Amino acid sequence: MIKRLLLVAMLLGVTHSLWAQASAPDSAYLVAYSDTQGQGRNGLLFAWSLDRQSWHTIGAGHVFMYCDYGTWGGEKRMIDPFLLEGPDGWWHCVWSVNDRDGVVAHAMSQNLIDWRPQAYPMLNPGGHCLQPEMFYDGGQREFVISWLSQAGEDPGVYQTTTPNLKVYSDKQAIAEDQRLDVRQEVQIEDRIFSGTVHRVSWSVIRDLLQAQQLAAYHVQQEQETTDQDPVRFERLRPMEATVTVKGKERKTISNELIGVFFEDINYAADGGLYAELVQNRGFEYQLHDKKGRDRGWTAMKAWSVSGDGAEVKIETESPLHENNPHYAVLTVEQVGSGLVNEGFDGIPVQAGEQYDVSFFARNLGRGKRAILVRLINDAGQSCGEVTVTVTSSDWKKVEAVLTANQTITDARLELVPQATGLTALDMISLFPQKTFKGHKNGLRTDLAQCVADLHPRFVRFPGGCVAHGDGLHNIYNWKDTIGPLEARKPLRNLWGYHQSMGLGYFEYFQYCEDIGAQPVPVVAAGVPCQNSSDGGAGQQCGIPMEEMDDYVQDVLDLIEWANGDATTTWGRKRAEAGHPDPFNLKYLGVGNEDLITEIFKERFAMIYQAVTEQYPDIVVIGTVGPFFEGSDYEEGWRFATELGLAMVDEHYYRPPGWFIHNQDYYDKYDRSKSKVYLGEYAGHLSGRPNNIETALSEALYLTAVERNGDVVHMASYAPMLAKHGHTQWNPDLIYFNNAEVHPTVGYYVQQMFGQNSGDTYLASQVTLSNRSEDVRKRVGVSVVQDSQTGDTLVKLVNMLPVDVTTKVILEELGEIPSSATQIVLMGDPDDRGAKPVSREVEVAQEFEITLSKYSFTLIRIEDAG
Ligand code: AHR
By C-alpha distance, which of 423, 426, 427 is closest to 363? Predict the structure, then answer.
């Protein structure tokens, strides 16, 4: 606390002195540079000087712009930035992104603080763009950019011209001495940097210093954790509060506020929610799924041969389906040997339960061939078996039912031909008959139920990054995920594994219907993930324009598939899959936290225009970048406003301190603009736990989101599912293994909001016995009513280390029943195992409850009438 006060005082003091200094110079020198030690990953830095000798950093190492080119980890490098003050009133910055690709990065800003989205024009295909320089040719009214290339057919010095930094002339070789070579070396502290030096008015320096100090202050706020509470709240004693609910100050809020975001990350689909028990059933795993990093990740992954009398080969000639080109040929020379699948970390089965066995087979010998299909345990004993017969020399589906006689989590499935010879096998499946709602090709019951128990009003799928993909060839194509399983097209999962697409669009929509949630499919906006690492430069590029009509048609076909009647081309396919009635799709996400480039914008606009023309009732949800601020956020909002989008998707993963200090984030939103879908958010602490601290910060924030339920229409925590031992991302909402489901404390926060949502928000006045800002920000209150039940839901979050005795005044609500249901989630901040406890409590028009330290309390008061 004291530290913070000092910081605020310092901030006020410093900025005051910056603003008010009577002797401030009229102008100063500014150098723009990057740090080679960080290989440029620490972005654009500034320092200032009055005499070009003695330089002062603007916030040691404070980054004014990061490079967004390429994949995380390896790229995102700003090498040799070159800054130019253009005649158009904009600062332009160009830089190299690596020593490989022939692109130059460009960004522009009016104040050097807020930068417009970056562009990466390809100026030198096959060559380099090193040490770019730029000047404005007033005579020709064009910018000239030159660079060095040491690769390609003709190493040398080149330049291009551009009137607008959008359209570039072909490169032209120039002599080395035609370059301006204006970069200068400056000594900053004990190091020498090379950069561009500019004479600027002092107000430019002052604004940069001020922006850096404000950013530092925000960082300080974000870094507040409960670890510091013993010091921050050293003098704080148990407190009193009064919450007066203003029955007459009410507003309508979204009745679809709390939902879920499903992405196939952390083995959420195959090996997770999708109930298939055989791993790699189609023999379609490829080394490339893991970019060659796992030599065992091949078409034989999870498969092996048992015994010495058999061998297996992967073949591709005359496959079952062109989308499923690989299959296994099992050659048995000695009966008793077979083909074994290990499942996903073993196959969990329960004694007495029935399992559907199926596969496609071709007998490559004569006559028929019996195959024993059995589950085996660690000791090689059978835990259930059935014998089937392969009769055809053409691909034919074989089906049977097997009953398990043991409950184990690590069985294996074995196929043992009962005669010597060759059998071709594909799509070998073992499926529990007990799936969620009993659907064939359905979902794992416990996991699907756990999600359903959140009472989500919508499900967003299939991603996230999975939706827009790792490079153009990896964009998720919904059409590849419907129809017969053997005809679905598997895809490399950008999280480093494989998507069988067994859980496809039909299954997603069916699940939404089963749990009463709106489906929110997300299609790529004609661009892949900007962090792509696969197939090319790794930067966001677009589906070629000549292919965009087909892509737009695919999007329109999705809507017809979901909503068209069974006489339409795509509606018929849905009907044939078993759902003659439309799914009543209402929302369509287009894009996922993309860079808001020209490439993105023109493709998004094409999709948006086509959808709104043909299906004006569909709510298209746009995207405003991966952060709560910054260039894509700003440009995304500008673009959304220009198009008049109904809704945009915001994403932010922040430390608990951010959620504590930004509860007014949506209070400031313009109600006349697009509504918000907060599609991804979560509290991230160091070590990435999901504990009471993160969960309460989310609960606190959600009380503010409910208050802003007139502008925030939907919100979903991310990511949702994670299999123990297979996580690419933490924290998640629900962890699981093959046998158990482990909801997190964050899950219970979502559940308390999801199960207790309303459609009317009632204002309340909160008075605390301690009025300090730090205290006030850690108490959250939200009161909503549900018009369907008439119930009033009071949510009270106490993120303080002391109890708060709270008087709740409900007089303006009229008659109140004498008892209500109270649910409390509480624990130590680092508690990862707390569960909500429910009980009946006495209530009245005025009643008292104690909000325990670090707790979230919910009171459901039924309609007295
Ligand atoms: O939720 C995990 C990832 O976070 C999503 O795929 C992506 O949209 C975001 O960056």
Answer: 423
